[in-house]
Write a structure and sequence with these properties.
Organism: endosymbiont of Escarpia spicata
Mean pLDDT: 82
Low-confidence stretches: 12-35
Number of strands: 8
Number of helices: 6
Keywords: Membrane, Transmembrane, Transmembrane helix
Order of helices and strands: HEEEEHHEHEHEEH
Protein name: Thioredoxin domain-containing protein
InterPro entries: Thioredoxin-like_sf
CATH topology of the largest domain: Glutaredoxin
Number of domains: 2
Radius of gyration: 23 Å
Length: 196
């Protein structure tokens, strides 16, 4: 006949349970931490935040909203200036070109340029870069609403690049002070880490 465990045995069982729970929690926490934490020069959003709703058009005049962000990685810049000579357009082209040696990565990423004011030069320039480089445009009201929803001020010349994941969530931010080589390396690190 088995007797009832004594106080010492109960403490030993509780101690072993506590150690087991701690060990499992530590393992799970570190596994998720290493799988998610990629050191980059930009800012990683934790957790990623859903991209705001917007309604614009691409250079082929096809509707483009946050729904089209789903299923691919997206690098989006909202340019308070406009034109193919603007620093934001130039930075996007540089990042795009830096990823040319990573052709698979370049193919699975949309590069989306949305200027405050569109022009035929912008549409033609984006079209020459390939099917994954898009120039968005829309009515003045729709463009203003899009800029506002992404938090872009009317009185700034600086720009932010938004890395949006395949679930249409803002995953990371890069500022205009970060150079193209650094941004391209960060994109490679983040996307490779998320798609092992």
């Amino acid at each position: 006949m088995i007797g009832r465990p004594g106080p010492r045995q109960r403490r030993a069982v509780f101690f072993l349970l506590a150690i087991s729970v701690f060990a499992i929690s530590y393992y799970v926490g570190n596994r998720n931490k290493t799988g998610d934490a990629v050191p980059i020069s930009g800012v990683v959003m934790r957790p990623p935040t859903p991209a705001p709703e917007f309604q614009l058009f691409d250079q082929s005049n096809e509707p483009f909203s946050q729904e089209r962000l789903q299923g691919s990685w997206n690098l989006l810049v909202l340019d308070p200036q406009s034109g193919t000579a603007s620093p934001a357009f130039h930075r996007m082209v540089q990042v795009y070109n830096r990823l040319a040696i990573e052709s698979e990565l370049q193919r699975q990423t949309l590069f989306i340029y949305a200027p405050r004011e569109s022009s035929d030069d912008i549409k033609v320039g984006a079209g020459r870069l390939g099917p994954n480089f898009l120039a968005l445009h829309g009515t003045e009201q729709n463009v203003d609403e899009t800029f506002s929803r992404f938090g872009v001020s009317d009185i700034t010349d600086s720009f932010t690049l938004y890395l949006i994941d395949p679930e249409a969530r803002i995953h990371a931010l890069f500022t205009d002070v970060q150079d193209a080589a650094t941004i391209a390396a960060d994109l490679k690190a983040i996307i490779s880490n998320q798609n092992p």
